[in-house]
Structures
1.
Amino acid sequence: DTEVTQTPKHLVMGMTNKKSLKCEQHMGHRAMYWYKQKAKKPPELMFVYSYEKLSINESVPSRFSPECPNSSLLNLHLHALQPEDSALYLCASSPRGAHTDTQYFGPGTRLTVL
Amino acid sequence: KNEVEQSPQNLTAQEGEFITINCSYSVGISALHWLQQHPGGGIVSLFMLSSGKKKHGRLIATINIQEKHSSLHITASHPRDSAVYICAVRTTQGGSEKLVFGKGTKLTVNP
């Protein structure tokens, strides 16, 4: 299994909802990442987990809450989002912790906040 | 000024043409990545370079560390190559390594 999977593919939520995005990889990678990408812009790093510990938080608002229950799974919990949070959320993983080579990206979850 | 600059922003080519996309950066890097993003969002990592040249099929990537410049070449381009190509550099900021992305080059290959 050489891919990163993300669910759901699309999500529409209201500003008062609580939802979660899920990312999974079974390549034995030890670093996992969340990125946010707005239309026609490059991805922006949000969080990095290295060996299941949060190693980088790029000053992301607390309405986004990451969780890494195990080395294969990465969640992003969403609460009280704003319409400007609508974007493509990309998950990625890499083999040897944060200081490593190629990142493998998932297909993304397209989030719309109404 | 962005730390990673790509040119051109948009590129239209006819099937079969040789294509070059350029990336210049202004920071010290440990590696440079070329990524491909198709409409709908999924990103595929094409190359990771720290020196020299790599080739995979019709794709060739080169990097000149002294000049802080990299190029991605596509030979015998095909409509399925139509995508956004993103250059990203691995650099250290504030004591942490991170990827800094260019804004991407949108390539359209017409049949």
2.
Amino acid sequence: EVQLVESGGALVQPGGSLRLSCSASGFTFSSYAIYWVRQAPGKGLEYVSRISSNGDSTNYADSFKGRFTISRDNSKNTVYLQMSSLRDEDTAVYYCVKDTQHSAYGAYGGTFDFWGQGTLVTVSS
Amino acid sequence: DIQMTQSPSSLSASVGDTVTITCRASQGISNYLAWFQQKPGKAPKSLIYAASSLQSGVPSKFSGSGSGTDFTLTISSLQPEDFATYYCQQYNRHPLTFGGGTKVEIK
């Protein structure tokens, strides 16, 4: 059974930093890209970042470039999202999501089959 | 960025009804379109990819169609468990973008 478990969400002050983790199981982790998608309270879904199966390629939505860093450790089946210079508007549930496409067919398929349960990040003074 | 516009933003329907949700892209995206279902307080669930292909385990009551800029999600024979918010997502071009969502409520 595919499982994605996020952790690390917390209450943090504006300007602060936080690292989220996504621990995966139930599939060959090193063969799939992983994404972060977030959802502000009462709002829709927003793409944040993605990382290729071997970590060589990363991409970010413009709102997060220079503030967020995605990385992965395939020996630990874990993806990380390092967030810095946090703002009130970064308050959201952050989901870790698995790509549908095996890396043999390209770095990114672009869409998702499995989602984690999410971890809540609250930015407030 | 490619803008995704869903309509309606909400709809009311009865158990047993068939409903259709529309998603329009601001430019052509071929068939790089996915649909997700989200229930209150839960993570989204993937329903459809490549505009019309069902994810594993998704019942055939869900169907998708379209190509280019206009897409639809149809849910037949609505059941209580289908009342949720539905999102489309394009993956033709980075950054990935989502529609604003359509909330399907019980009439």
3.
Amino acid sequence: GAVVSQHPSWVICKSGTSVKIECRSLDFQATTMFWYRQFPKQSLMLMATSNEGSKATYEQGVEKDKFLINHASLTLSTLTVTSAHPEDSSFYICSATSLGGGKNFGPGTRLLVL
Amino acid sequence: AQKVTQAQTEISVVEKEDVTLDCVYETRDTTYYLFWYKQPPSGELVFLIRRNSFDEQNEISGRYSWNFQKSTSSFNFTITASQVVDSAVYFCALSEAASSASKIIFGSGTRLSIRP
């Protein structure tokens, strides 16, 4: 139980395009989801906390207009990287909190912006 | 503010050696959770353990063991008789235990290489 999926697992796009990444809790409802970004050989850095039915809370230094987060249902949160540039190339990981408080991580999405 | 420090950036040992990964944390919360995750080259995080701040008992799971010392704010991880498959990046992490909205803060990670 408590499985989190992400789609796509890999995405390559041209500079200036927008990319949407989905995070789904498959067998549980998650009122709160988290989005992390991990650059090569670095740690996971929290980008934002996504709350179902309300606006996301962004960490300091993360541009909310560039990284749009939508948490429209209890099982789905989306992260849209708008006007992506090569410096946005990274590994994006989501996490969803289950009822018991467990933090369940998705398998991650690798984004490469050319 | 919460902070997790993993001072060891990289560790390399020969197979079958024991290895300990250090983790020191800072928090003002009285109730919190500590975690260890393994991240193999595929990138997917593998959950290893979650420990509540009220439970200072050491834990052993097969070749893995964890030493939680509240007095020194440390939560160290030991792999006994290491194997090549243990090669990965290991992250120590911390979160408040208060609610589902509590975020997890990660340490910088320790890259462990086990040589045959």
4.
Amino acid sequence: DAKTTQPPSMDCAEGRAANLPCNHSTISGNEYVYWYRQIHSQGPQYIIHGLKNNETNEMASLIITEDRKSSTLILPHATLRDTAVYYCIVRVAISNFGNEKLTFGTGTRLTIIP
Amino acid sequence: DAGVTQSPTHLIKTRGQQVTLRCSPKSGHDTVSWYQQALGQGPQFIFQYYEEEERQRGNFPDRFSGHQFPNYSSELNVNALLLGDSALYLCASSSKKQGANNQPQHFGDGTRLSIL
């Protein structure tokens, strides 16, 4: 799986959009970009994933550059409950057994400031 | 719709003992993966079970073993516990039967294992 690079920490004011970058310059054509977050003392929570098109769901938007070497997770209106560690992961989509391992880095610690 | 459930939530053991952790996958899921998360680190993949067989394994010694039951639930067993085994153990489930192989894994809140 391709490695990802994320800033170790970021701050964002409550109510503003939080934009979390991720570099994955060695991503392969069959690898998806996944985002998870982990609030203290809880398990990782799935947020969103995508291949090459921008994606949006009720939690966030995912913007993937045209060359797919980087992506940005956008939380449109950050709240205090969005304070967490955010992980960007790339993972092969197709495997013999369907679901390959997730390789986590150290993520970005996002702090929402009141 | 129950999510992934793990038991117990906390556990304290001493060096040399063995431990069994349990996981019930999200309804409709058939694949279970286990991860170890040391303090301040991201989760590390231990192994994955599908159709009651270990399908993929991370860089963990044979002291770590597992099992998947016909109802898709799973156990993680760790023998000869070491101080370094103290960690949060996470279970994640997913579905192969949903067709597309990009389905996300969903995590439980883990078992916090402390070794004294």
